[in-house]
Amino acid sequence: MKRLIACVLAAALPGLAAAAPGRPYVNDKKAPENRKDLEAIQTALTSVLGKARAATVCIDLGQGSGSGVIVSEDGLILTAAHVSGGVRKDVTVIMEDGKKLKAVTLGLNSETDAAMIRITEEGKYPFIEVDREDTARLGDWVFSLGHSGGFDKERGSVVRLGRLVRMAESTIQSDCTLIGGDSGGPLFDLQGRLIGIHSRVGQQLQVNMHVPTSVFVKNWDALLKSEFVGEGPFAKKPEKGKGFLGLASEAHPDGGLKVTKVGKDTPAAKADIREGDILLKLNGTDLKTREQLQETLKEMAEGDPLEFAATRDGKPLTFKLKLGAR
Amino acid sequence: MHANLLFIPLFATLVCATGSRAQSLESNFRTTGPGVTAAFEPQRLVIQQSSAVVYQGRDEIAYGVVISPDGDVLTKASEIKGIDAAKLAVTIDQTKYTAVEIVGIDPVWDVAHLRVKASGLKPVVYAPTSAVPQGTWVVANGATSRTKRRVLGGIVSAKIREIPTAGGAALGVTLAQPKKKSDPQLVIEELSEKSGAKEAGLQPGDEITAIEGKPVKTREDIAKALKDRKAGAIIKVGYRRKNENLTADVRLMAREEMADQMSRNDQMSGDFSERRSGFPRILQHDILGASRSVGGPLLDLDGRCIGMNIARANRSESFAIPVEDLKAIAGRMLNHAKDRDAEPAAPAPDAQPAPSID
Lengths: 326, 358
Prior knowledge:
Chain A is an alpha+beta fold. Chain A has helices at about 1-20, 35-55, 80-85, 215-225, 265-270, 290-300; strands at about 55-60, 65-70, 75-80, 90-95, 100-110, 115-120, 140-145, 160-165, 170-175, 185-190, 195-200, 210, 230, 245, 245-250, 255-260, 280, 285, 305-310, 315-320, 325.
C-alpha cells in the first residue's frame, strides 16, 4: 500500500515542480531545441558555478583523497561513506584555494553511501543550499564538481554538465562522468542547489551514480550524532574488542590504576600518558581493577573516544584520546 | 595523493537492482543522444566543412582541423605515428583525398601538418579568445559516417593551464647497476617496449656517453640534461657500442606512457589518448569522444574555433590546444611549409616520397 502511494505521488509531482519558482524552463523541455535553450542552460550554470565551486572541497585522508561539499557556514560537509570510511576519524579538508583545514568524520550510512564531516577549525565557510524538498526530476540538467584524480590547485575542481538519466529511491544517475577522486563530491541543479553526492560508476560513461539528498535528509540526525548506520558495502564497522590503547597497569592501593608501562608510539603514548600516572576514571566511571579496564575496552572499537581522569605526582590531569587499531 | 585515490567503486549490478520504481531517460534525450545534439546543427555544419577525418586504410584514426582553403590540415601527431603517408586518407565534407602529404610535425604540441590537393575549402574561423567562463558550451566531432560528421556538446570545465609531462620526460631505459665504482655507470640493461630509445634502435649493452653533444657520466648528468625538456622532443643521444661511438635521435616520452601497469582510474577510463600530458597550455572540457576522435576543432556556439582537441585524458577530462596557441602553431607550420616549397633545390612534393613519422 505504501509503495502505491509513493508511486502516485511521484507521478503527480512533476506537474508541481514545473511551477516551482526559479526552475529553468529548459528542464521541462524534452531537449534543448535551439541556441536560446542552450544559452538558458549556460547562463544558469555560469551564474551559480562560482558559489558551488567555493563550497566544494577535497577530503585528504593521507592514504587517498575524495571530495565533499560544505552545507553550513560553520563547516558541516556532506560526502560519501566510502570516502569518510568511519566515524570520529581525523581528516584534512582542502579548500579550492589550497587552504588546509582540520576536520573530523561524523556519522555515515554504509548502505546508501552517505556521510558527514565537520571542519573543526572555527571560521565562516562558503556553503551551498541543500535541496531538501526532493525537487529534482528525471531529465533535469545538472552539473557535477569534484577533485577528479586528486587535488590540483592549477586546475581546480572539474565541472561537468549532464542530465538526470535515472531516478530510484536511494540512487540517482546522471551522465556527468565521474572518476576516482570525485567520490563524495556534489551534484547540483541549475539553481545551484545540492541534489546528490557522487558515489559510484559503471563501465559505461553514462552510468554515474549519486546519493540523493533525500537520503541525507532522512539520516540527518543520526549522521550529525556520529552514528554508524547499517551494515552495507560502503564502510566497515570497526570490530569491538579490536581497539588498542597501549599501556599496562595495576590496581593502586589508594584507588585507581597505576600505569606500569606505556608502549612506544601507541595511542596512550601519543596522549602523553606516562609510567607512574594514576588513572582514576574512564569516561566518568571509577577505575578499580585492571580486569575492569580490560572489560570496558573489550566493548569498544577502533576510533572510540576515551577520557581518563588521572593524577601525576598528586596533580590532576585529563587525557583525551581515541582507541587505535590493534 | 595521485597514487592512491579513493576510488569510485564500479557497481554494474546495482544499476539493475534498484527495482521497478526507477525511471529512466531514453537514450535519445541523454546529453550525448541525437535528440539533444540536434540543437547543435549550426555548429555541426561548420564541423562538416572545416573538420577532417583521417583514415588509415578504412579505419578512422583521428580528426583534423582545416586551416587553409588549399588543403592544409592539422591533426594529432601521435595518432598517425609510424604510419606511412601513402596509407593515409583524409575526408573533408564529402570528398575523400587519398594523396596525403605529411608536411611537418610539432613534437611539443603533438600536432602534425597534413596536406591534400584541394582548393576552395572552408578553413575554421578562429575565436577571438579561449578565455571564456567555465560552463560555456563547446562543440566537437562525435562519430562520423562516410559523408556526415556528427557532433557532441559539452562545457569548458577547468582552468587553462600547462599539463606537465606525467612522470617527467624520459628516454625509457633502465641502466645496469655497475658492479664497481670504476665501471661505466650508464650501460643500458633494458629498454621499455614503447620507449623512444627502443624506437631509435638503442640496445641493451649500449653505453650512453652524451646527450645533445654534452658528455654524461652519471645518472645525475642524464637527469640534469633531461630536466625541463618536454615529452615529444627529439634529442641526440651519443652512445658506445662495441667500441664504436654512435649517435641516435631519441624521442622523449612521458614516463607514464611507458608504464606497463594502468592505474585504477585508467582502467575505469577505458579509452584514452596515449599521449595526454606534456602540453604547454590546454583548455579543458567534458566532451568525451573516443580517443580516435581527437584532433578536430573545438567550436563555440558561434561556430568559431576556440581550440583543437588534442587528448582524451581520462573518463572525465578532455584537453584542447587553446585558440591563441593553435593560431601560432598553424602560422608557424604554414610558413615552414612555404619556405620549404620556395627552396628552388627542393623537388616538387609529388616527386618526393612522403616521409613517415618516427
